[in-house]
Batch of 2 targets.
Target 1
Amino acid sequence: MHTSRRDAFQSIGIPPVGTIDYASRTVTLSEEAVKRGTHKLALHDKLEPHCALVQFYPGMAPELLSAYEGYKGLVLAGTGLGHVSTALIPGIKKLIAGGTQVVMTSQCMHGRVCDRVYDTGRDLLAAGVIEGGDMLPEVALVKQMWVLGNEKESRKGGSDDGNRSQGRVHAEERPWTVMNLGIRSCQLLMENSSCAES
Amino acid sequence: MPKANYEDVGLVAGIEIHQQLDTKEKLFCHCPTTLMDNAEHTGEFSRYLRATESEMGEIDRAAQEEMKRIRKFRYYTYKTTCLVENDEEPPAPFNEEALSIGLTLAKTFGMTPIPQVHTMRKLVIDGSNTSGFQRTALVAINGALPNGGSIETICIEEEAAQRVKDEIFSLDRLGIPLVEITTSPCMHTPEEVQQVAEYIGMVLRSTGKVKRGLGTIRQDVNISIKNGARVEIKGVQELDLIAEVVRREVQRQQTLLLIRDELVKRNASVGTGQIDVTDLFKSTGSAILKKAKKISALVLPGFAGLVGREIQPGRRLGSEMSDYAKKCGVGGIFHTDELPAYGVTAEEVARLREFVHAKEQDAVILVSGSSPKQADCAWHQVADRAKVALSEKPVPEETRKMLEEGSTAYMRPLPGAERMYPETDVLPVRIDEARWNTVVIPELLTVTAERYAKDLGLDPAVARQMAFSEERPLFEQAVAKGIKPTLASRTLLATLKELRRDGVETDKIPDNAIIAVLEAIEKGAAAKEAIPEVLTAIAKGSTVKDAMAKLAPTVSRDELAAVIKKIVTERAEFVAQKQKGALGPLMGVVMQEVRGSVDGKVVSELLRREIDLVLAQKK
């Protein structure tokens, strides 16, 4: 989360999987940490390659979206609570109608998207955009590639329930539990393994 | 004190019941609905709250009153709370489980559901909500009550944060779903109010989806009498107190009416000038007056003796004035009906009366403030309240809070309609016919009790206790598994209670463990006598298997027969001597040997047979 500082890899929106006490060399794992060997793992390495990540910026030309027609999935990195210009909504609608799963995330590091607060957000939900919860855009992209590559029927629709049932969105935001350690990629791996089991 | 004939008095009462729902998650976030120990809070933050104007550009009068003081509120956060409670994240969609419980209640009361449930914001700036509003949604209207009255509305709302102390609030409770049931003003005696509250409470518990225990249900009572005014009394937690609260409110309103008549007869009035008497108390023995930056006096011509008149047990007209003054942050007021006292001497009172030119039939009120502004604010509050006391309508419309034993204190004016505005962050939920049709009306607990008595053969009193108990679902589960209803009810009602009394943490016994133990007894694998010991061991962390093996090891009939044979043979002389009377003493020896593993009845049967056999052989 920093280009060069020592805490460059700190996790966002999730407590560390463990802490290390240097003096005693003891590692204390969080209650949620999944230990090696406690789960039977299976390799599900199929990824849907036709997924993309698009960063919204003010003045972005709506026609840029048409480049992704025929794609299976598209992650949007929107502003603030998860918004793009209303000028983009017809294009998004068209993509969804054509079978592209569109997930909204935020360019903000912290917090979750909520498209139920402002009209633009509600219009996005009505168009069929899925709220990406507190996932960072890159994470959402990888998860989308995995889901579309492995789930027989990808979930569509804008409901929060839909997001939760995909099981990879943290339901609550508790920033005060976040410390400066933890490995996000590890968490991602664990989530995928438990998903593979179910 | 006037005695009330409630019909003549024109008593009209309605109630609002607030009941916490036992849902998995909170109403507008995914946090659990568990209450925490305040000591476990993981963080805190603070807020200032201000009232916002309504869509019509008005500020609610109750909110205005709360804003008289600028207050900084502090909030405790927990491992179990999130940014939604902090009002730093938009609300999640409406909790479907809570809505379903609301619909179940609506159907049970024969109500009409609202086709589109819209969430509203209700302005509350007393600190109990971080956002300054409470979210509420109207779910259904027009229900019927057994007394012929009606239920006006059912709303699902957010529970408020709990006050820890003064201006500190705890966020664990904020957002727990509540159902608010509002009746029409259809009750006319204190007892009727209590009966209706009991009935609604019974229906609520019939759903099996409401929280239990003190503080999980609160009744607000709306009361008015002829020539009085509508007063809302908040937070009556004990059902048994409702009738008393109503009786005392009727008494309060009646007395306020009598005081007004007396004031009019005396041609009483309220002094117009605020008189600075700070210097009079420069060297007073009253600590409060001594440290005050400003002391103001209000002369109330013709009020003498009436400010101190009791209007409710423990409450006087002076207490009402004091409550109003407290809104400015002062600790209270002094009035001449109760002076000299509190360190104020008779000489000081005489000097005060002289200084403000008060006559014998006049009362003088003293307000002291830690700043001139505070004293001004309190003086005006008291003067306003005194004017109401001698006005056409001497009972002000108020929201009041219940004190111990059923008297009440002023909280704020009744809120106006201005305090509601739409919550735009929560999408409306549609209740279509298909959904309404799937709502199942639960069996009322009164019917359940009858069924337990009739079909399961429980004693009617036990049946009622079982039906109304929190353990009802577990009882039903046990009976469905073939456990005798009497065994199940005795264990769940009596045994668990006794264990709790002995300090056993029965909450730690899982439901399925209780069922497993009862099933073992039903199968004859253990004796009833072993239940308390086995459950105690489980509460202390033992598994069912270990507890049973240790405290009630399984003994087969053959093994038991062998044990009995051995014991009887060893004590042949004793048997010969006591003959059949040996049964009793030997029972104890055998039971000790097999511990709790065999039912006493079986032991007694086998032992008797063995003794008979030995005696027959002797002959």
Target 2
Amino acid sequence: MKKYVQIENVQMSFETKQGTFVALKDIDLKIDPGEFITLIGHSGCGKSTLLNLIAGLLMPTDGVMLCADREIAGPGPDRGVVFQNHSLLPWLTCFENVHLAVERVFGASESKAQLAQRANDALELVHLSHAAQKLPHEISGGMKQRVGIARALSMQPKVLLMDEPFGALDALTRAHLQDELMKIVAATKSTVVMVTHDVDEAVLLSDRIVMMTNGPAATIGEILTVDLPKPRNRLALANDAHYHSLRGAVLEFLYQKQAKKAA
Amino acid sequence: MIKLKRHLAEHWVPPLIGIALFLFLWSMLAQGGGTLPGPLKTWDSAVVLFSDPFYQKTPNDQGIGWNILNSLGRVGIGFGLAALIGIPLGFMIGRFGFLDKMTSPIVSMLRPVSPLAWLPIGLLVFQAANPAAIWVIFISSIWPMIINTAMGVRQLPQDYLNVARVLNLSEWKVFTKILFPATLPYMLTGIRLAIGTAWLVIVAAEMLTGGVGIGFWVWDEWNNLNVEHIIIAIFVVGIIGLLLEMLLIQIAKRFSY
């Protein structure tokens, strides 16, 4: 089976005033179509950097990155990005925010009506049709994040990249959006790479959890396969022994093997 | 009813007390002898003046309405030209670091210069009073527009640029959908500062250049020793400045997110 995303021997370093700072080294990761991958690690471990590399917002200093057998040379519509702070344009309505993405990807080949239909479909997918004509400041944080997801999905990307998409939300809203995301991913069969610092979120959503060592020169420490059957239900999992053993494995990695020294 | 009373007490009573106190102090000063006319005398004179604002006797003796319109016209032209050049220049300076570094010493040096210092240059180049006055307005209002527009562009959040990159937007889309709307509030601040300065400067410029205009009118009335008219002119300039400011604040409100 062809790999959707291939990362081989990637190294990333930044030039700073104190000299060269190596953020990531020896990163090897292959992602299959339809897989849900989470990147987890302590802050500063370069998990967002890795996501930005896949997004094409950063260029690796060394190594090869492929998406569907094409080299990643910059951002492209085959990789939809959901930002941590939603990053909707405040002067455009929810519809216009999504439409901006649709227009860019399909504008050359489709009619205006088809483009509008795509934007509406994407909003429908995240259950926000009723807020299409609202401005971002008129809707809640959770809704904004859903528009962000709709915008990314509307481009029909090969891979959906999410950078701590629910990090800024309260626990209840977060749980609600996680459930919705599971349904959307199941319905669209999306391939997802998601950065998180939430162990429960990682175990609940992922097929594989990529656990990163502490920086500088962070790399992939372990990869944990989450073989819980889908669809998953957070209430049922609360009493599931296997769920707890997986959760325990991630916690052990984070708080024992990669325990952060007190700053 | 109680709400209305509270609204009146909070929003109308303090300014009214302020104005009353001001008028009281003014009449006290006028009472104490000297040649300063009091509020009532000034009011009577204003009623006469505004009963026929658009008469035209000689080129130098025209109604207050003409004077105001002429001044506003000069400000409009000078300010408009400054916006036409200053705003695009501000965008370019904000977007391209090289241009920013190139222009920054010149802008920093010329900005604090009193606009009136440019008047002789204007007279020399244009050989006429009216374009020279417009030139002074142009120079005084271009700096806030350049500086604020450039600042708006520079402060564009990285998030928005990342969105532009991820969505792969064309340069034109980046400008119309991101850069321009994000910069607009800063630009409007620049415009507001510019028009404020322009209106300040026009009175002084017209005193020097002559012709029909509120500034020259003040000077003319000083030569006629008509002090009531000078006081009226001060109020007229103040009220028009206030109206311009309020108009621009309303426009800016419309475009804040």
